[in-house]
Amino acid sequence: MSRERRRGVGCRAQDKDTERTTHVLDETGSVTTAEPTKETRSEEDLDLPWQVVVHNDPVNLMSYVTMVFQRVFGYPREKAEKHMLEVHQKGRSILWAGMREPAELYVQQLHGYLLLATLEKLS
Amino acid sequence: MEICRHNDQIEISELDPFLAELLRQIPASASPDGVSAAEERLFSSPTNGKEPELCAEWKQYVEPELRRLFQSATETVTADLEQLNGNEKSLVNRTLHIPAKHIDAWLNALNQARLVIAVKNNFTELELSDHFRSPIGSRRDLSLFQINFYGFLQEFILRELDG
Predict the structure, then answer these.
(1) What is the residue-wise DSSP string for A2-35?
(2) Which domain holds residue B38?
(3) CB B107 to CB A60 under 8 A?
């Protein structure tokens, strides 16, 4: 996924504007007050968290799924196995929740390992 | 057939012609061959069809990268399988060497093949968990055997990765 695209995806909808007054020390040593500048804060910062969900798939081996969770999320074996069993027994498991951009990257990696993974907006 | 790890490679030895042929079919089996269900399984929706804007961008930017990743894995496996080229007689008791650095490509290609075969044959969860179905009496039985054989190889490789 290109950086440009990810930015594009992450910064959708309206931006929140905030004003900041800047004080500038010029060459003569005097302080002047600059015009207030506008800073933009993307909605991503304020957005609801997204969750990375892995769904059950009868083909993928349990040991393979455990290995993928360890590799992608850096989870210790015990935690990876817990999630794998949850996927197996309940049909799905929430592996991670947070901002949209890293969530997309996690799902992309999981798809690279051929797991059934989706992004869901936390409600 | 024997399978073991020697130094920095996995050796599959005493391969009979039948199993050698199944191994040679990994790259071809991993191809969706235009079957849309298989294509959809390899390139599944990131949102289960919700968030159409995200799905469209995913198709445009992520899918080509995944396609390259999967193709690269099958190409690596294809190159390793050249060790098995030859006529049936020459395949008796052949040994296949898989370098450790190719292990991820093998895991990926085996998984692609297993998923595509399962989708093309529309296997049920019950059939997929029947590891002892025998004898091979139909093309469908053979496909199920193929899935289980590839799964066995994956299990072995994963155990070796675990040390």
Answers:
(1) -HHHHHHHHT-SPPEEEEE--EEE-TTS-EEEPP
(2) 2-162
(3) no
